Amino acid sequence: MVNLHAVTSAPLARRLDLRDAVVIGASSMIGAGVFAVFAPASRAAGPWLLAGLAVAVVVALCNATSTAQLAATYPTSGGAYVYGRERLGPWSGFSAGWSFVIGKTASCAAMATTFAAYTVPGPWQRPVAAAAVVALTAVSWRGVTRTAGLARVILAVVLVAIALALAGAWLGGATGPLLEGGAGPGAAGTPGGGGGTTAPGAPSAVGPLDVLQSAGLIFFALAGYARIATLGEEVREPRATIPRAIVATLLGVATLYAVVAVTVLSVLGPEGLARSGAPLADAVAAGSWDWAVPVVRVGAAAASLGALLALLAGVGRTTLAMARNHDLPGVLAAVHPRFHVPHRAEAAVAAVVVVAVLVADLRELIGFSSVGVLLYYAVANLSAFTQGPDHRLYPRWVQVLGAVGCVALVLTLPAASLAAALGVLAVGLGYRLVRRPGRAAPAGPTLDG
């Protein structure tokens, strides 16, 4: 019989510096969202898309500062799962951790699905998405420094593709049919086009709830900065590195997103943007730079892979932290003796993601993910609110604004996605109640989990 305590309690190696942390965070945020999210957001908010982006950035900044403040005090794997346990109690921590795991597992599936949609024809998309999950899990198993190294390469490819797309959109002379609201190269229902029905256009009238819904959709594309906090046990000098990396990454990526949003809205118009399945590719195709469209599609595929790689690492480490505290089966708390990664947790996450890409579509995955991630950040904001002056980096009103913003955005999401996510959250809470009724969390993992 294996002594799991001796195997699973080993700490993760601190190998990441500030640059590595920023790269992993940026590769999580500059993912498939920047190539696709502005179309559904425009269908919600129309010409008020930039207002939705502004709301999303404000909520994300509140969440990021709360996460940075907490991560400086608790520099260990687990993110808001650890923060909730320490500041609010075991049940709040579990709710945050489980919300993160289910939300970001859906995000992994969304990224894999988007990658396949940009690279292969429809019949091959689901198996290719599943294969991408398996391949990147194998990369992540080789160690976090390899994860950071591959993320750096992918991020460079994505940034080049985005820069080319922006140049093509502004310098190519926008004359394409999408400017008149027609169906352009990527207007089909899936990212990158390729068949299906044309998406609905922009709304004729926009209200505050429509702007909030747009913000909730855009938040899905922004919420990658938590990957830095979940890697807290592997970052050098975490008390200084984590806050700097989180805030710097978010501000840099938000600026890039604003430039992209202004570009696609200006070139395609609200109606054309709402009907587009691949806004950046369509913005380039609307002008004379047709040769650049394939490059943009390659960039979208690379962005999806980069985000998927970082997401798999983050979800695996939150699963590790929960298993260490017996909120998930103890067998998932194993750390590989050679590569120092939570290999069993990552394998379990990958298995669930493979199933998700085989049975769910992209819209379902995004809605489900947004609910889980926003609930996770609500707990983070409440946790940061309880910190005293010795550990406080930002005023309390920032955490209040963040928590209120998270709840408001959750309430604007589609009812089906909200119900499904809350149902899975309830299953997790029920599991914890049955497994450990009336007991405090034990100090370390045991064989029976």
Taken from the alpha-carbon principal axes, the silhouette is globular
Q: How are helices and strands ordered from N to C?
A: HHHHHHHHHHHHHHHHHH
Low-confidence stretches: 1-9, 176-198, 438-449
Largest sheet: none
Brief write-up:
With 449 residues, the chain is mostly helical. The protein is built from 18 helices and no strands.
What does this structure look like?
This protein has 449 residues and is mainly α. It has helices at residues 4-8, 18-29, 33-36, 38-45, 49-73, 80-87, 90-119, 122-141, 144-171, 208-222, 226-230, 238-275, 279-285, 293-324, 343-359, 362-385, 396-412, 415-435. Helix 12 crosses helix 13. The protein is globular.
